[in-house]
Specification:
alpha+beta; two-stranded antiparallel ribbon
Length: about 100
């Protein structure tokens, strides 16, 4: 499996437990709008979803990695590591210079 995290989009005003969105490239397929959630058990990643006009409050059509559970865990771990790095970089950019 060839996996790269293309980007992490931090929310300036996070909505609830969603803190950011990720974009990845998985074996040449770009997957975007992957929510990064900060829940009671820590950070985790959900599959992206599309909201249907018929049911705007209920997301539909998840993208799932069904081959092996470990692949989904690899994707989640890569996204969370990139998110933590982005947060650390953002925090260091805000430090006042001496």
């Amino acid at each position: 499996m060839n996996l790269s995290v293309e980007n992490i989009y931090l929310l300036s005003k996070p909505k609830g437990s969603v803190k950011a969105f990720a974009a990845i490239n998985l074996d040449g397929i770009s997957i975007r709008n992957i929510p990064i959630i900060d829940g009671p058990n820590g950070l985790h990643v959900l599959p992206p979803s599309i909201h249907s006009p018929e049911t705007p409050n209920k997301p539909k059509r998840y993208i799932r990695i069904v081959d092996f559970k470990e692949k989904a865990e690899d994707v989640s771990q890569a996204i969370i590591e990139a998110y933590k790095t982005m947060l650390a970089d953002t925090a260091s950019d805000k430090q006042p210079e001496e």
